[in-house]
Design brief:
By secondary structure, the chain is of the alpha+beta class. It is built from five helices and 25 strands. The chain has four domains: 120 residues, Immunoglobulins (Immunoglobulin-like, Sandwich), CATH 2.60.40.10; 88 residues, Immunoglobulins (Immunoglobulin-like, Sandwich), CATH 2.60.40.10; 93 residues, Sandwich (Immunoglobulin-like), CATH 2.60.40.10; 78 residues, no CATH class. A hairpin with a 2-residue loop joins strand 21 and strand 22.
Length: 426
C-alpha cells in the first residue's frame, strides 16, 4: 500500500514539473517616449532545466518572422524598428522573461506574447498575449527646495523616478544669467525603482528674488520641466517713516488738539512684526505685515517726543524714529482775541462817558431853570408840564445863576469828552 501511494505521488510531481506556464499581465500602458516594460515569468518541464534555450517576443497575435520584437540570439531576426530598442530585464535561466522596449512609440502599441525554444525540439508559446497601450508623456521631475536665504549657500534638488531601465534621462537646470551655480547628477536604485537626481548648488542674493529656476527632463524624443520661483528670504531693510502731511521727515510739528497719523513701512521676507513705541512704551503692533499705522487723535503735550518703529523677522531687525513736537494752540488766536476785547472795552467806555455827560447836562438844566431861558427837559415826564410853569422855572434859573438866555452853550461845554483819554484804553 505504501509503495503504491509513493508511486502515485511521484507521478503527480512529474506531471506538475512538466507543465508550461506563463505569468504576464493582460494590459500594460506606457508613456510615449519613455521605456515600456512587460513583466513576465515562465515555467517549463524540469528535465529541460539545463538545456540551452532562446526566447522570442512577438508583436502580433500569431507566429511569424514579420512580427519579431525581440530575439535572444540574433537581433537581425527582429523587425528593423525594434533593433537596439528591446531587451530582457532578467535572465531566461531564472524564469524571467520581462521585456523592455526603449523609447516607446505609438507604433509599438499592440499585442505581445512570449515563446521559449529548447534546441528546436521543445517549444512553447505563452498565450494569452499582453496588450501594450500608449499614452501621452506627462511625467515631470520634482524640485525639492530648501530654505533660500540671501547670502547663504543652498542645495536645490531635482528628482525623477522610473521603474523602467531604459535610456537614462538627462536632468539639466535653466537659470537666469545672474544666478550662478554648479550641478551634480547621480542615479540610485531601490528595488525596481531608479532615481535620477540633479543637485544645483548656489548662493542666492536679494536680486534673485522672484526669478525662475527650471529643472528640465530630456529623453531622446520627449521632454518636460518643472519651474521654481525663487523666494529669497532676507531681514528687514529700507525702513521708512511718513505722515499723512509730510513725507520722509524726521520730525513733525502738530498744533495741540489736532490729530495725526504716522506710518512705518519696511521691506522683508517673510513679512516683519512691526511695533510703534513712544518713550519705550509700545503703542501699536502688527504681525507678519510690512506696514503699520499709528493714529494720534487730539494731540496734547503728553504726546511730545520720539516715536520709534521696530521691524523684525527671523533673519534680523531694523528700527527708525520720528520726533513729534506739539505747539500750544492760541499764540496768534490770543493776540486777535486781545485786540477785539480792547476795541469792545473802548466802545463801552465811550458810551459810558457820553451817558454821564448827558445826565449831567439834564441835571444842570433843572438847577438853573429859574434864571435862564427854558431848557428842554431830559425826562419824558417833563414834557407834560404846563407852559406857564416852564416860563416861571426858566426865570428862576436865570436869576439864581446869573445866566442869560445865551448861556446854554456853556452848559454843554461842561460835558466835553476827552476822546484821547477814552481810546487810549483800546
Amino acid at each position: 500500500m505504501i509503495g503504491k501511494s509513493y508511486f502515485l505521488l511521484s507521478l503527480l510531481q512529474v506531471g506538475l514539473s512538466q507543465e508550461w506556464k506563463g505569468h504576464t499581465p493582460e494590459e500594460v500602458t506606457a508613456q510615449e517616449g519613455l521605456c515600456a516594460q512587460i513583466p513576465c515569468h515562465y515555467s517549463y518541464p524540469s528535465h529541460l532545466a539545463n538545456q540551452p534555450r532562446l526566447g522570442i517576443w512577438y508583436n502580433n497575435e500569431k507566429l511569424g518572422k514579420s512580427s519579431v520584437a525581440f530575439h535572444s540570439e540574433d537581433y537581425n531576426h527582429q523587425l528593423p524598428r525594434f533593433r537596439h530598442r528591446t531587451w530582457l530585464s532578467g535572465d531566461l535561466k531564472d524564469g524571467d522573461c520581462s521585456l523592455i522596449i526603449n523609447s516607446f512609440t505609438r507604433e509599438d502599441a499592440g499585442p505581445y506574447f512570449f515563446r521559449i525554444e529548447f534546441n528546436n525540439q521543445d517549444k512553447y508559446s505563452y498565450i494569452p498575449e499582453t496588450w501594450l497601450h500608449v499614452s501621452d508623456f506627462t511625467d515631470k521631475p520634482r524640485i525639492f527646495p530648501a530654505d533660500i536665504i540671501a547670502g547663504k549657500p543652498v542645495d536645490i534638488s531635482c528628482i525623477f523616478n522610473t521603474t523602467c531601465n531604459g535610456t537614462a534621462p538627462a536632468l539639466t537646470w535653466d537659470t537666469a544669467t545672474d544666478v550662478p551655480g554648479s550641478a551634480s547628477n547621480t542615479v540610485t536604485q531601490h528595488g525596481v525603482t531608479l532615481t535620477y537626481t540633479s543637485v544645483l548648488s548656489l548662493t542666492p542674493s536679494l536680486r534673485h528674488h522672484g526669478q525662475n529656476l527650471t529643472c528640465r527632463l530630456r529623453y531622446p524624443s520627449v521632454s518636460s520641466e518643472r519651474t521654481l520661483v525663487l523666494t529669497v528670504q532676507y531681514p528687514p531693510q529700507n525702513l521708512s517713516i511718513t505722515s499723512l502731511d509730510i513725507i520722509d521727515a524726521s520730525s513733525i510739528n502738530i498744533i495741540e488738539g489736532n490729530s495725526t497719523v504716522i506710518i512705518c513701512s519696511v521691506e522683508s521676507f517673510p513679512a516683519s512684526n512691526l511695533t510703534w513705541r513712544h518713550l519705550n512704551v509700545p503703542k501699536n503692533r502688527t504681525s507678519s505685515n510690512n506696514e503699520l499705522w499709528l493714529a494720534i487723535p487730539h494731540v496734547t503735550s503728553r504726546d511730545t517726543g520720539d516715536y520709534d518703529c521696530v521691524a523684525e523677522n527671523e533673519h534680523g531687525a531694523v528700527e527708525g524714529s520720528i520726533t513729534i513736537t506739539v505747539e500750544r494752540r492760541g499764540s496768534n488766536d490770543w493776540k486777535a482775541g486781545l485786540l477785539g476785547a480792547g476795541i469792545t472795552l473802548g466802545v463801552g467806555l465811550s458810551g459810558f462817558f457820553i451817558f454821564k455827560c448827558v445826565k449831567k447836562l439834564c441835571s444842570t438844566g433843572r438847577d438853573h431853570s429859574a434864571q435862564t431861558e427854558p431848557i428842554r427837559s431830559c425826562s419824558s415826564d417833563d414834557k407834560s408840564d404846563k407852559s406857564w410853569k416852564k416860563e416861571e422855572k426858566e426865570l428862576e434859573m436865570k436869576s439864581e445863576h446869573g445866566l442869560s438866555p445865551d448861556s446854554e452853550d456853556n452848559v454843554y461845554e461842561s460835558c466835553e469828552i476827552d476822546k484821547d483819554s477814552v481810546y487810549v484804553n483800546v
